Amino acid sequence: MIIAGAGASGLSLLWYITESDLLKNRSILLLDRSLTPADDKTWCFWDSNDLPMKDWIHHSWDSLNVRAYNHEFPAKLQKFGYHCMRSVDYSDALLKRAKADPRITLLEADITGFDTIVAEPPSIDRSSNGTPGSSKLGVVHTSQGDFTADWIFQSALKPVTSSEPSPRRHQNGIYLKQHFLGVEIRTEKACFDPSQATLMDFDTPQDRGLTFFYVLPFTPHEALIEYTFFTKTVLSRDEYMRGVEGYLSERFDLDASGYEITREEIGVIPMETRRYPARYNERVVNMGTMGGLTKPSTGYTFTRIHRHCASIVSRLEQGRQPVVEGESQYRFRVYDTMLLYILEHQPAMGKQIFHDLFQRNHYDRVLTFLEEKTHPLQELAIFATLPYAPFLRSIWKMRRHILTGA
Length: 406
Ligand SMILES: Cc1cc2nc3c(=O)[nH]c(=O)nc-3n(C[C@H](O)[C@H](O)[C@H](O)COP(=O)(O)OP(=O)(O)OC[C@H]3O[C@@H](n4cnc5c(N)ncnc54)[C@H](O)[C@@H]3O)c2cc1C
Description:
The chain is of the alpha+beta class. It contains eleven helices and 20 strands. It folds into three domains: about 1-35 and about 45-60 and about 85-160 and about 275-315, 3-Layer(bba) Sandwich (FAD/NAD(P)-binding domain); about 175-270, Alpha-Beta Plaits, CATH 3.30.70; about 330-405.
């Protein structure tokens, strides 16, 4: 097998494959343009405390907060922990394991494309191929040459059929971005409560679209502050930075002499109604962001990547094609479409909706809903706490998209 792209999804898949007794005879080529762990992302997720890889979690919170219209909704989580993993720790641990494993070959190379070729009959090892009888192999083209495998799992290139939307498709779809600058700071005075993360603080100007601050405190003196937008256009670093400085001054009474910046991260995550194909071609499977694993209405991807990788491995173990179609059920895709429509066309409603959502529902219930683990009656109970007019309007406006499968 080839894993093309050694980020969150590539390394997670590698972990699930190497943990499988049934796949222990597989040899794997792991490709990325850089195999040096990068400290460029902080992945947060919630779970019921039974996920693998616990050792690499950087910090966990048992309490969350949301703020809007000067109201705060702090509460302890009962069902979940809210965790963060640093990409550098995750990559470091998994790449070290990979280097020590004789089944795995690591190669730094630029990936330029994918193809299939017809396999010469003698070269097919049908005992290790997930689909006996198949005569194709996947090919990855790289700066270091071409490589072939029964299956290629890729998270590096945009699938061909999901190229940038044309103006015509724009009319039927919604293409927002969740974009942010995250600034990690160390303060002189004690400012933060490391047991509580602020998911969203909406008490900041909303004139560009839905805008909020996300505050992840690690110690009383250290926190990651992310200035986040759900809009179409990203900002310059200076514009984000001015917002962060204003927020630190207003909310924590911190001026530039009261803190030092220890780290920064910039993020752009797609929030789109477009569906990504599960395959790049017959033998190349899309994963991670390139596989459309991002939940369109929230940008959360990490847990979905884990579920996707676990399903791929389970199929490989059963000798089935390791292709998993679609992450979300139809009704959740409809809910995502409704919220995205509102965020694009009535962004001012976004703050009100999130205010009502967190004022009238416990975090455990909201997180279960965002995890798509609720049943329809529970979902109706949540919708009953929200202003209904914008949602009805969104259904009407997006009816063609909804009726054709969302
Ligand atoms: C800053 C940031 C913060 C995020 N925070 C969260 C979060 O808190 N919670 C959450 O659920 N989601 C979060 N996400 C969304 C998502 O979980 C991450 O983007 C995640 O890294 C996606 O995993 P991936 O494997 O698809 O992509 P990546 O992790 O980006 O991995 C792709 C890999 O492919 C390699 N690559 C790309 N192109 C080529 C090429 N041409 N040749 C060779 N190699 C190539 C890259 O070097 C990279 O290693 C965040 C995203 C960003 C950008």
